[in-house]
Design brief:
The complex is a heterodimer of chains A (126) and B (592). Chain A contains five helices and five strands, in the order βαβαβαβαβα. Chain A has 126 residues and is α/β, with parallel strands linked by helices. Chain A has a single domain, classed as Response regulator (Rossmann fold). Chain B has helices spanning 5-29, 48-61, 65-80, 123-131, 186-239, 258-264, 268-271, 277-280, 284-299, 346-381, 390-421, 433-450, 472-489, 534-539, 547-557; strands spanning 84-90, 96-104, 117-119, 135-137, 158-166, 169-178, 243-247, 253-256, 310-315, 321-331, 334-344, 429-431, 456-461, 468-470, 495-503, 506-513, 561-565, 575-581. The two termini of chain B are 79 Å apart. Classes of the chains: A alpha/beta (126), B alpha+beta (592).
Chain lengths: 126, 592
Amino acid sequence: MARILVAEDERDIRELIGFTLRHHGHTVLTASNGEDALAVALRELPDLVLLDIRMPRLTGYDVCRRLRAEPSTQHIPVAFLSAKGQEAEIQAGMDAGATDYILKPFAPDQLVNRVALLLGLPGDSG
Amino acid sequence: MTLGPGEITALLLVAVLAAGLGAFLATRLRPSPVRAAPGTPSPRPISPFDALAEIGSGLTAADDVDQVLARALAVLARASGAERAALHLVAPGSDRLLHWASHNSGQDAEPVVRPLTAERSHGLAGWVIEHRQPALIPDVSRDRRWIPFPGAADDHRSALAVPLVAGSDTFGACLLLSRQPEAFTPIDLELASAAAGLMACALRMADLRRSLHERSRREEEATRQQQADSSRAQAILESIADGVLVTGPAHHVTLCNAAAERILRIERASVVGQPAAQWIGVYGPAGRRWAEALQAWSRKPPAAAEHASLADRLELEDRRVVEVHIAPVVQGGDFLGTVAVFRDISREVEVDQLKSDFVATVSHELRTPMTSIRGYVQMMLLEAAGPLTDEQRKFMEIIRTNSDRLGRLVSDLLDLSRIESGAEELHLQPVPLLPVLETGREYLATRSVQESKALRIEMEAEEPLSDVQADPQRLQQILRGLLDNAFNFTPAGGTVWIRARTQGGEVRVDVADTGTGIPAAEQPRVFERFFRGEQALNLGVPGTGLGLSIVAHLVERHGGAIELESPGVPGKGTRFTVSLPAAPAAAGSAGG
C-alpha cells in the first residue's frame, strides 16, 4: 500500500490515525511537531502527508508551504487535519497549498476513504 | 408698543419744542399787566413768566411725571389765583376719565389722587378733551358744560379748562376753579394752555420713556433667557458622557465638550477655532473619510429626510478604539456644519476579541479530545482491536451516541456564538427556494431511515415562488433546524409538512408536524438558549436546546421573522413559520 506521514502533536490522535491507517495496510511514519514533519517528509518522500495545523515549532501551514517549495516534495499530496472549521480557516489551508482539508473530529472510516481518494486508490471496501 | 429710532427723535423734539414753547410764551407774557379783575383783584403771588419757567424747568429736570404734574398744577393754581386746580386724565386704553389730581390752594401741599372715574365726555373736562379747545367760563351757573365735582362742595363760580394735547394725542384736561365769578382772564387762559402743553409733553415723554423702558426690559429678559438657555445647553453638552464636537459651515471647530477632550486626548483650546481638516488627518483612513464627508455635505447639503451620517471607528495611537458618529447640521437647505459624537469602545472591542479568541480556543480544545474518543470508540466497534461481546458493543454504542451529542453541542454552541457576535458575514444572494426545500426533504427522509422512525413528509409550494434573499448555507441551516425539531418531537407514523409561499415581498416557509406540540406556557421560551421543554425531557428527545435558538438568530440576521403556533396538545403538533425577505425581482426567478 502507501507510505503516509502523520504529523500531529496530540499523541492519542497520532496513534489513532496511525492505528487506523496501518489497519488498512498502509505504512505510517509519524512526527509530533512541524520541524520533525518537514525533516521526515524531505528524507522519506512519503506518498501522502497528513498535517495538523497547530503544532509546536512549525505550523502545518509552514510545513505545507515548504513542501510545496521543494522540488522533491512539491508533488506529494498534503491534507490538513484540523478542528479549525471556519470558511476563512479552510481557505487559509488551501492557500498554503494543501490538497485536502479534513475536519476534526473525524470518524476513522471517513479518514480512510479520504486517504484512498488522495492516493488515487479504490475506496475502502470495509 | 415698540419704539423706533424715529420715535426717539420725536421724543427729543418734543422736549426741545416744549422748552421753546415755554420760553416763547414766557416772553409774550413777560409784561405781566397789573390785574384789574372785576371781582376781587387779588395780586398774583407769581408771575406767568415765572410760573412757566418753573414748570418748564421741572419738565426737563424731573424724571417722575407725577411729580412734574403735581408741581405744574400747584404752580398754575398759584399763578392763576385759582382756589382749586384739577387734572383729569384719560385712562390709558379706555374711554374713562381718571380724576388724577387736584390741588386746593393753601390747603394741600401735595395733590390728592382720587381713583374716581367718569365717562371720557363727562362735564367740562370731557368737553375740552373732545373739542381739543380751552374753555373760559366766567359764570359756571350759566354754562351747562359745568357739572360739579362729585362729592365736592359746589361753591365755585368761575372756571377755566384747557386740554392736554401733544401732537395727535389728548391726554386729558386741566381745570382751574375759583369761588369768584370771572376770576380768570384771557392771559390766564394762555398761561394755562401753555402749561397744559408742557404737561402734555411731560405725559408724552413719560409714555415714550415707559415704552422705551418696557422694550429694553423685554430685550434684557430675552437676552437673559437666551443666556440661560445657552448656558443650560452648554451645561448639558458638558455633562454628556459621549464626546461632542461641532464644526461650522467652513469646517472650523466651534465646540468641543469635556468628554471629547478626554476621549480624543485633545485640548479644547488647541482645536476650537481651528479648521477640522488640520487635525482629523491624524486618524488615518477614518480621518480621510471624515474629511470627505464634511466636503460632500457642504457641497450638497443633504435633506433632513436622508438622515445622512457617517459612522466610523478611529484607531488611536494608544490603541484605543473610538466610535464616531458624524452628522451634518442643515437648516432650510443651508449647511450649518456638523456634529460629531465620540464614544470610547476600546473595552467593548477588547471583550469582543476575547470572546472570539475564547470561542476559537474552546472549539479547538474540545474537538481534539473528542476526536480521540470518537475515533477509538469507532475502532473498537469495527473490532479493529479484537472481537467484542454483545455487552461491550452495547456500552461502546452508548459512548458513541453521547460523544456524538457532545460534538453537536460544541458545534451548535460555536455556531450560536459566531452568529450572535455577528462575526460571520452573511453572503446574501437570491436563492431559489425549491431546491433548498428539496434538500431539506431528503435530509429528513434520510434521518427517518437512519433512525428507523417512519414519517410522512409532505411538501407544498405555491407558485409562483420568489427567490429568497439569503445566505444559501444559512438558509439550509434554518430549514434543517426546523426539520430536526419537527423530527425529534413527532412520534413514528406522524407527518411533517414543508410549505412555502410568496406573500407581499416575503417568502414564508412553514414547517408543521403532528408531534407533541408546545404548551402555551413554554412557547415564549422556545427560542431561548438551552431551553428544553417538558416533553423533550420526558420523551428523552435528543438535542442540546440550541437548535431553535440558532434558527431564530439566523432568521433575525436575515431581517426575517419567526413565529410558532401550537395548541399544545400532543398529536396536534406545532407549526413554525419563517418569513424571509424575497430577493429583488429578477428575470426568471419564479418557479425555478
